[in-house]
Amino acid sequence: MRAQFVLSEISVGLRRNLTMTFAVIVSVALSLALAGGSLLAREQVSTMKGYWYDKVQVSVYLCNENDAESDPNCAKGAVTAEQKQQIRTELGKLRVVDKVYHESADEAFKHYQEQFKDSPLADSLTPDQMQESYRVKLKDPTKYRVVQTAFSERPGVQEVQDQRNLLENLFNLLNGMNIAALFVMGLMLVVALLLIVNTVRVSAFSRRRETGIMRLVGASSFYIQMPFILEAAIAGLIGAGFACVLLLGGKFFLIDSWLADKIALINFIGWDAVLKVLPLLIAVGVLMPAVAAFFTLRKYLKV
């Protein structure tokens, strides 16, 4: 009988405040979808960093005849065969170095033509203008400065370049977007909490006669508060369900069906990462409104 009464009170409360309940559901859904998206974005950035940092190399560019005229680091002229051999030998002795690849000027020219064939400079360059280089794969990509310190001022070396720097701007942009999403998520959560508080207040005010009668017949505080708390929890659960649908739809339609085909170089997160986030969203979607309703009732429902 008591359970039936509580369920009937929940049904009445949801119908009386249908508009505000709908607003709570939408705000909870959007805020939790942003929260889940932010968590997945962080996971994606970490995955990309691990994938690309493992593949980036340190490039030791060697001086050529053209650099001798324009670059102070190559003022002593183009690199000699003896200097190249010495650099190659010392690179192999460094403990942080995994592998060393040599790229000749002709190979550099060929790679440039393949990568920048649509560039207006592609037809004006010649192989003798390209630089020889040693491409160094490190055991730990963060140990770049070991190679830089050892070879940046070496005769015959024009520049030591860490390819990680080329990726830092991309990762900084992604992290910035993630922070912006977290900020918007925070605003949406505040809006959701305010809507929950107002919904509970209106519901408690509209049923003050019923709660007064229940108090007179000796109903406990918890029994009186239960319908209001469950109303908020149900609205939050529905909102969390919509948030889960949004994340699943984003993974299927945006990533798997579109981005994965357009950007084949990125190793996107899998379904396991998405499924791990969903229980957290549901838990937050239920607990956040229930806790907010509980503390609101303590203030506005004198039981």
Automatic annotation (TrEMBL):
Q: Which domain of life is it from?
A: Bacteria
Per UniProt, the keywords (alphabetical) are: Cell cycle, Cell division, Cell membrane, Membrane, Transmembrane, Transmembrane helix
- Span of domain FtsX extracellular: 56-160
Q: Where in the cell is it found?
A: Cell membrane
Tell me how this protein sits in the membrane: Multi-pass membrane protein
Domain called ABC3 transporter permease C-terminal: residue spans? 183-299
User: Where does the sequence pass through the membrane?
Assistant: 21-41, 179-200, 221-248, 277-297
Oligomeric and partner information: Forms a membrane-associated complex with FtsE.
The family this protein is said to belong to: Belongs to the ABC-4 integral membrane protein family. FtsX subfamily.
Q: What does this protein do?
A: Part of the ABC transporter FtsEX involved in cellular division.
- What is the recorded name of this protein? Cell division protein FtsX
